[in-house]
Structure formats: structure tokens, C-alpha cells
Design a protein that fits this description.
single chain, alpha+beta, 4-stranded antiparallel β-sheet, 4 strands, RNApol-bd_RbpA, RNA polymerase-binding protein RbpA, transcription, RbpA_sf
């Protein structure tokens, strides 16, 4: 078992002062609120000298993953995704038994050609 100093392995012991002013926490910032379709608010901070056109209008909400916009009354709507279609869903879309038989015959013919049994 290791004993001795309380320094965390990989930390910069004795590296000098690293205060908040060195990391930029005291820079002038502006808070921008974003709302998603479920009404969740997310606040992002941007530099005060950043032009308005560089601040994004839509972001992804970290709490829900939905798109969030700056307009509280009209947030972006939830995108409509098509559900995953199973093989059976495609089979049900076939209109006639003749079409299904033609597909089966075509698949068997191609398989026989590949195996050299044509």
C-alpha cells in the first residue's frame, strides 16, 4: 500500500498559481437561455464581445437531447422519426402472392447461379 504525500497522481504539484483569472473565468460573459419542446431551460454562457450572429439559435438540450431554441413561447418541435421497419413489415407491404413468388424465384435462381447449379 502506498503512503506518503497527499498529491493526486498526475497533478501539477508546485507548478505555480493557477487562479480563476488565469483560466478566463472573469471575462465578461452573457447568459443565453434555450428552451426545448418539454419546457426545460438550458443556460449557456458566451463571451460578451461575441457578435450576435455567432451565438447559435438552436442547440441540443443536455437534459432531453431534443433541440432547444431561444424563443420560450415557440421552442423547436420534436423531430418525427420513422420507426424501424422489420422484415415482416416489408413482407406485409407486398400486394400480391405472385409478386412474392417472383421475388423468391429470382432469389433462388441467383443462388443456384452462384453455386454453379444452373
Amino acid at each position: 500500500m502506498a503512503s506518503g504525500n497527499s498529491a493526486i497522481r498526475g497533478s501539477r504539484v508546485g507548478a505555480g498559481p493557477m487562479g480563476e483569472q488565469d483560466r478566463g473565468f472573469h471575462a465578461d460573459r452573457v447568459a443565453v437561455s434555450y428552451w426545448d419542446a418539454q419546457g426545460n431551460e438550458t443556460v449557456r454562457y458566451f463571451a460578451a464581445n461575441l457578435p450576435e450572429e455567432e451565438i447559435p439559435d438552436i442547440i441540443d438540450s443536455p437534459s432531453t437531447g431534443l433541440p432547444a431554441g431561444r424563443d420560450r413561447e415557440n421552442p423547436p418541435s420534436v423531430s418525427k422519426l420513422e420507426p424501424y421497419k422489420t422484415h415482416l413489415a416489408y413482407v406485409k407491404e407486398r400486394r400480391t402472392d405472385e409478386e412474392a413468388a417472383a421475388l423468391l424465384d429470382d432469389a433462388l435462381t441467383q443462388l443456384r447461379i452462384r453455386r454453379g447449379q444452373a
